[in-house]
Protein 1
Amino acid sequence: MSHPLLPRIDACVNVIRARLPGFTPKLGVILGSGLGAFADTLERAVSIDYRELPDFPTSSVHGHAGRLVCGYRGAVPVVAMAGRVHFYEGYSPQQVAFPARVLCRLGAKHLTITNAAGGINTGFGVGDLMAITDHLNLSGFNPLIGPNEDALGPRFPDMSHAYDPAALGVLRASAQAVGAQLREGVYVALSGPSYETPAEIRMLRTLGGDAVGMSTVPEVIVASHMGVKVTGISCITNLAAGISAQKLSHDEVAETANKVKDVFTRLLSRFLDDVAATV
Ligand code: HPA
């Protein structure tokens, strides 16, 4: 994807605005693998196929493109992405992060980014939900590589508070309110698509990682670039390589994500209501 980016982002924003005149989301949500059910809980929702949005990358993983769902939680306008693309699918880092830029440009003041991840921390169990407190970008790429578009954000954005501390406090309270146990930890991003080796997981644990996955970080970086606050939630769909005797498989990831979707949706819904009051 070549520069300038801004007209490409605005082309998507214009398509969305043409479908939903005056729609300005307060909150954006990116739903991870198997966690798309939340999008169906939005009220007065309008769903836009990614293929209708110019330059929006479409997913190859599950055989469907993905959809942008614009709707409401009560009075609060929310835009949710059900389906995202990954670097391992062959998209450039800029393409992977492009949809997050569209959500921010559309007006979202806060972005909640969710994913399926492997648990590195041996205190974690399958099905746990983890608030991301920080990340290690070991993916080997950064979506900001290339000319900086000053209208979007600075050349060297600060990442000291990439996961907004105040919103993290809100998330803790939301988890308590809905009776969901919430772990916390550092998310490690690798490129994938092969899962890690046991030696790599030992290394990542030594480096301070608690969960590992193949997404999220590109979107967090561009949201930070654009000055949009972020909250990250990982669903621990499996124990990372070498922790249990079990082989890793995408089937296990999908199965766990499906099992936790009720508590995940309850937590996410409550969190969005609570955080909306603060932004
Ligand atoms: N490793 C990397 N990515 C993942 C995993 C994992 O164990 N589980 C879900 N996504």
Protein 2
Amino acid sequence: MGQEATLVIVKPDGLIKSLTGDVLSRLSKTGLKIIGAKVLEVTPELAHEHYRHLKDKPFYGELIKYISGFLHGENRVMAMVYYGKDAISKVREIAGSTNPEEAEPVSIRGAYGRILTTGLYENVIHASSSTQEAEREIKLWFEPREIVIELYPAKDAVNPQTKKVWL
Ligand code: IDP
Ligand code: MG
């Protein structure tokens, strides 16, 4: 694969546990560029849209509570877009397997993740899993002006304050 972008989200448990610095340090070892970064509050609407492909899973309800902060009393997350060669696989390797018990102990999820008594995997970060998913997710979480390169085509918005919107 060539140059590609991937979305990383430090989930509410990562913020509660003050893991953002460590996550950034670990991801910097990939040599990828950060082309967008922000802290934001996750609304239920954003949570449902982000995880819409999992809506039939038994853990979906808990997952929405997790990413939108209801499990931790903390609805901030940190969202970043990383860009470079093989960005998706490089970030997922450092993130580790989805199940924190199966994740390599040296990975982020292996080091800091856990399985809750409800069965939900509390695994510190989100990382996009394909170029298609990365594009869908980045367009969902970021506006064009929040990303420092012209990653995807965008057009001038009707509302001049927004400047540009995703096509
Ligand atoms: P990923 O985050 O590694 O891409 P996905 O399958 O996209 O994994 O699932 C999204 C999130 O849902 C995971 O990060 C984890 O928090 C949770 N999750 C996924 N599969 C399970 C499961 O089998 N049991 C409990 N929680 C899960
Ligand atoms: Mg996924």
